[in-house]
Amino acid sequence: MLIGAHVREADPIDSAAERGADIVQMFLADPQGWKKPPAHPQAEQLRAGGLTVVVHSPYVVNVASLNNRIRIPSRKLVVQHAEAAATVGAIGLVVHGGHVTQGEDAAKGVENWRKFVERQAGEGGFAVPVLIENTAGGDNAMARHFDALARLWDAVGEFGVGFCLDTCHAFAAGEDLVDVVDRAKAITGRIDLVHLNNSRDEFGSARDRHANVDDGTIEPDALVAVCAAAGAPVVVETPAEGQAADIAFLRERLGS
């Protein structure tokens, strides 16, 4: 099982080595910006090396939005980041499920997702797999509660999109972690990546505040159980100073 971390440093190869990570997740551009990602200085090394890479799209992306000024550039940004992710040899591009605003019809957000992936499939697909991630809050979110996730997957699943399960997000959304893997797989048929994060807040809080594996409101054993059941690569998005310990703990408990 691949276990690693999200890093923000400019040198993901050294950052991974410092943490004992065999998979690294990174941004390729400003996570709060709309600019096309530049060429990564370590692209050739990352493609040729033994480190597994996954890319996270900017937080501003909202493919579901009914606002043209958000949805249209979001689509463009996802395509651009998938292309850039391919240049570093990434196994996938993580994209948040997004949301519509209060008073808008969530079904239209689902329809926007379908139109996007269907159109892209017709143009040859994405340069790397797009992994839709469940989110923590928002009453009009596409992938917060699993009933909403099921509606989204009914619309997009046939186009080969993948799924990224975030434990903090699920816990904050009020989804029980005991059987979360089975329920997610029943909907999506797959888990391609696990974001293994503890939560600083209580169950059902709708707050997306990550904690290190042994320093939150989720029992560490429950997090280990999610990893074991998912059988997918694991990335911790926890506070950087504790990531090496998080990875070592998981590796020891999972025998990886």
Describe this structure as you would to a colleague:
There is one protein chain. The protein has 256 residues and is an alpha/beta fold. The chain has a single domain (3-254), classed as Alpha-Beta Barrel (TIM Barrel). The chain is 39% helix and 14% strand. It is built from nine helices and ten strands. The strands form two sheets. The protein has an eight-stranded parallel β-barrel, surrounded by four helices. It is globular, with a radius of gyration of 17 Å. The N and C termini lie close together (6 Å). The model has no long low-confidence stretch (mean pLDDT 97).
Question: In a few lines, what is going on in this structure?
Answer:
The protein is an alpha/beta fold and 256 residues long. 39% of the residues lie in helices and 14% in strands.
Protein traits:
256 residues, alpha/beta, TIM Barrel, 8-stranded parallel beta barrel, 14% strand
